[in-house]
Specification:
seven-stranded mixed sheet; 53% strand; mainly beta; globular; four-stranded antiparallel sheet; single chain
Length: 118
């Protein structure tokens, strides 16, 4: 059973960089899946932010200039960094594993609330 767990600060000040880590257990991040970050702002739908596949990354175009995803295979973790945050980046952030267009996301973290506020 694969499990994903997000961790990171729950409160970030405007203009700072948000950094979240997803720790994966029960499976290796070196396998051929897209390890993804998705967020849900209050009252809105899910928003795909980006993913890492082996060492390649892909980002949502609106967030591309502010987003970076990396991985640490020794810890079986992948990390999201979102720079220059504003209150509009307040959301529940999820990490998830994408297995393909026909199968979608099969494993999700429980989500972590991040609030951007001074």
């Amino acid at each position: 059973q694969v499990q994903l767990q997000e961790s990171g600060p729950g409160l970030v000040k405007p203009s700072q960089t948000l950094s979240l880590t997803c720790t994966v257990s029960g499976g290796s991040i070196t396998t051929n899946y897209y390890w993804s970050w998705i967020r849900q702002p209050p009252g809105k739908g899910l928003e795909w932010m980006g993913a890492i596949y082996f060492v390649s990354t892909a980002y949502s175009p609106p967030l591309n200039s502010r987003t970076s995803i990396s991985r640490d295979t020794s810890k079986n973790q992948f990390t999201l960094q979102l720079s220059s945050v504003t209150p509009e980046d307040t959301a529940v952030y999820y990490c998830a594993r994408f297995t393909g267009w026909s199968t979608g996301y099969d494993y999700w973290g429980q989500g972590t609330q991040v609030t951007v506020s001074s």
